[in-house]
Amino acid sequence: MSRTKRFICVIALLWIAIFSEFSDVNASTLSSEKIHLVFIGNSITYGATLGNPAEQAPPIVTGRLIYEQTGKVVRVKNGGVSGITTFGFLPGRSAFENVVNAADVFCKESGPLYFLIMLGTNDSAEAGTEGAPVSTTVYKQNMKSIINALLQRYPKAKIIINYPIWYSPTTYNGAKYLQAGLNRLKSYHPIIDEIVKEYGVSMQGHVFPGDKNAYSFFENNTSFYTSESGQVGTFYLHPNAGGAVKLAQFWAGSIINLLEGDGIKIVDKSNELLLDSARQEILKCYNWSLNMDDPLIKNANQLLSNASGTGSEGSFGALIDRSYATWFQSDNKSDIGDIPNLQVDLCRDTLQQIVFTMMRRMDNNANISYNQIPADIDIYASNDTTDINGWIKIGGIHSGFPAISSKLPYASPLVLFDNAYRYLIFVVNKNITDKLGENGLPYYNMSEFQVYPAKINEEKSMYYQSEKLRQAVQELKALCTEGEVKLKNGTFDDNYKSLVTQGISKLKSVVSGIHNIKVEKTEQKFLLNGLKMENSNSEKHGILLSKNKKILY
What we know:
Elements (H helix, E strand, L loop, with lengths): L2 H17 L15 E7 L1 H4 L6 H4 L1 H13 L3 E7 L13 H13 L6 E6 L17 H18 L4 E4 L16 H25 L4 E3 L3 H6 L6 E6 L2 E7 L1 H19 L10 H14 L4 E4 L11 E2 L23 E2 L11 E5 L7 E7 L3 H4 L7 E9 L9 E6 L12 E2 L3 E2 L6 E9 L13 E2 L1 E9 L10 H23 L4 H20 L12 E3 L13 E4 L4 E3 L1
Parallel strand pairs: 1-2, 1-3, 3-4, 4-5, 8-22, 15-21
Antiparallel strand pairs: 6-7, 8-19, 9-11, 10-18, 11-17, 12-15, 12-16, 12-19, 13-14, 13-17, 20-21
Helix pairs in contact: 4-9, 6-7, 10-12, 10-13, 12-13
């Protein structure tokens, strides 16, 4: 089952559960296979020198990249230990037991298990680390001991040996590395090749090499390293935040190469993003306004989620109480089985255009670390929540969200429907920090959320001023509608991508050729009213509107 179809099945069943009172039905019943990643390494794997290794370390970033390309829940164990050599990860040692304990838990869940090993940096030291300097012979023995123990315990697992990356020949902190150490490090690379080749004969399909290009990318590329002071001057050993992302990209690429062989489909979101881009071009042809005195969500019973939280963080009422001191947070711990969402019953079936607003968590003096406001959203609509095939994607917003430090509410661009719909699903693909929860999925929180009806201003909309433009818009709308069907059934090919691209180009050409149409273009402003705090004046809080025209009061 494709990611889109599985998602629609989940949300449809959730609506049935609520409105038909089948309380035992929930998203976890449709939970799919998960991807399990166990990382074995040193301080580079751990994320030393990074501001927040729990979120920035290469294994964590790798997990996010794999999630984005598969749509699967990704479980990650960062087993990196600062200063460790291959001796420290030998079977029976505490570091080894730590990673296998995590792998034992992962094995209780369905889905493939991968071990990613990058050891050798500390083995290469001249002095100051366990066993240093470690010869190529001993390095090979230790690596094979680790691998043999893992495959004996997890015979279905796959192991990727990542080549240790470059460090500067001036590296001399608590341990002495220098040029001799760097030379020794490079001598481990052909040993890794030997190990992979030998297992290719004795245990084919279990041990694979990582990306060799990682070393050459990082070599002398000090802008991706943290500058550190050592005993012989500045040295470069640990990747900085940017370097951690680059390293994760190399690691993720090696994993992706194996996933399809294990039955995990790689998601190509480029076609989906192309349709969203087409919709954005269509929206530019309309001038619109909204009435914030007519909020569509008037009762918490209109809201639902496949990832409802618990306690004070799980209250839908917090989203419409007009108080920034309360909030809703989606469940980031339980196995919800799919991407978190927020579901809305508009209680009207006559609307064809809306705008939604969001406000970040503002408690604890607006602590930035608490801010997980959505920052990538797909929107689905339906008039029949019991019809799995009745859910239609009507748009996606992937940029233009407030900065993480912003204290202003956010208002979306216009969301335009081809038909009137009553039920909406807002799927949150990531939050503002791109952080995954303990369940391996993105999560979100907000203090306020509301939906408002929008009104098209025909006199000031290009769409109503040009027959040629209307034709181009309708053609592109039709391509988007058919494109969604093709995405669902897997027939969205390069030929159709070309048709959509041509449709976008045609619309842009028509728009640029219209010189006698004057379109009102107001600058982006902080507009007041709407979300008012109790006992506050109207100037205390505002709403940031993206490329909007004006507000009706």
